[in-house]
Amino acid sequence: MNDAFDLRSSEMHIEVHKFHTGAILAALILALFFQAFVPVYFPRVAILDLPLLITIYFGLSRRNPSTGLLLGMAIGLVQDSLSGPTVPLGLYGIAKTVIGYLASSIGARLDTEHPAARFALTALFFGLHQGIIVLTRRILLAQPEPWFNVHLAIAAGINAIVAVFLFLLLDRLRKPS
Amino acid sequence: MVGIPSRHKSLVLLAGVVVLQVLLLAVQIRRDSQGRLIRVWTVGAVSPFERAGVYGVGRIRGTWNHYFALQNTSRDNEQLRRENDTLKMQIAQLQSKAAEADRLALLLNFHKSHEDVPMIGARVIGASAGTASQTIDLDRGERDGIRRNMGVITPDGVVGKVVEAYQGTSQVLLLTDKDSGVGAMLADSRIQSPVGGTGEPLLTMKYVANDDTVNIGQRVVTSGMDRIFPRDLPVGTVAEIKSGNPFKMIRVRPAANLERLEEVIVLLTLRPLELKKESAPANPQSAAAPSPAANAAGPSQAAKP
């Protein structure tokens, strides 16, 4: 398989990135570890959703919807597993599956390398991710959950800012084209 | 197999993955009092088909049973008709027995309330063969102590008197016979006048002067002057009043239902009787004894003025 190839189905020249072996898995494990253990000592860090950012990043980079949704599903299910008995398996899994699919689909059509685009897309996906979770809780689990509050808006902004820098860091894991 | 376009494969995969996770959620979640969510969903999804199936089977079975499988219906119908007829007959018999029990209870009560008066209950076993006379036949006769001119009553009122006594049966001339009569009086005003039969359902009270006040509905009771019946036994009620010359023409409706007699009481004495005042059906207002000469009086002599 080539390290990189071009999508030439459209006018736009969009590059599909490949990563070093184990890079995705390592990034995923680190993100989950960070999400699971760092908030124990720094509770405010819990506002970050690093597994979501990882899902968005690799979805945008890989630009393959099937790969993106499966990656999102895997990350979400692991996050569910680490979230304790109050979170049923599938809650984050569904949300991140959809986000992975959408990120991959959008990444295949748009240039998402620009920091501004990454900021906007991350904020958008964060809101959408939260919306799917609320929808799942309300409809499937019959659990009351607010659709939106200021905390979520702040969290979306912070995650988007963090994503800009995190994605630059993750760009270093790419194989050179 | 219909192939899925490559551009839709990821969408199908997405749908499949999401559905799988939704099912995974459903398996884990337990709804209060409804069990696991997957069970709730499964039941909710399956129950409409079950209901539809039961409804459809019921319709088919009903259609089959009501329109096609009718080979036994005629026989069943006939059997049910027979059972229905039998049951109707049984109901009629039971109703008849119940009515008879009521009547006998009345007679028994009457007899108990006048234990000092010799009397015997008798069953009506026949009636006059023609319309020329109004008589009934009783299943009691001379060997039961019944003699001619004995009074016959029911708890409702006077019936008539014995005109013939045979060994085991007796014949009673009803009040409605045109040759019958009883000494009577108006219960309120105590105006006396014999009451006689006309051959019709109503009796007639002939000798009440035009100056006397009589109202419709007034009670007519025995006066005891015929020396057959004790005083104050109900005879009937005034039904019609017409002026006459010199007497009113008064029609009296009999107190006893003389057209449907089944059991009666025969007063087993030819001596003057005195009934207690508290006798409810007869309800005499006073209890004066008639003349002792009643023994010698024949039916017509005693009845007719």
* Helix share, percent of chain B: 25-40%
Shape of chain B: elongated
CATH topology of chain A: Arp2/3 complex 21 kDa subunit ARPC3
Strand order of the largest sheet of chain A: 1-2
Structural domains of chain A: how many:
1
Q: Judging by the overall fold, what is the CATH architecture of chain A?
A: Orthogonal Bundle
Structure in a nutshell:
The complex is a heterodimer of chains A (177) and B (305). Chain A has 177 residues and is mainly alpha-helical. Chain A contains six helices and two strands, in the order ββαααααα.
Q: Secondary structure elements and their pairing?
A:
The complex is a heterodimer of chains A (177) and B (305).
Chain A: E1 5-7, E2 14-16, H1 23-41, H2 50-62, H3 65-82, H4 91-107, H5 115-140, H6 150-171
Antiparallel strand pairs in A: 1-2
Chain B: H1 6-28, E1 30-31, E2 35-36, H2 37-68, H3 73-113, E3 119-127, E4 135-138, E5 151-154, E6 157-165, E7 170-174, E8 181-182, E9 184-186, E10 195-196, E11 203-209, E12 219-222, E13 234-242, E14 247-254, E15 263-267, H4 299-303
Antiparallel strand pairs in B: 1-2, 3-4, 3-15, 4-7, 5-6, 5-15, 6-7, 8-10, 9-12, 10-11, 11-14, 12-13, 13-14
Helix pairs in contact in B: 1-2
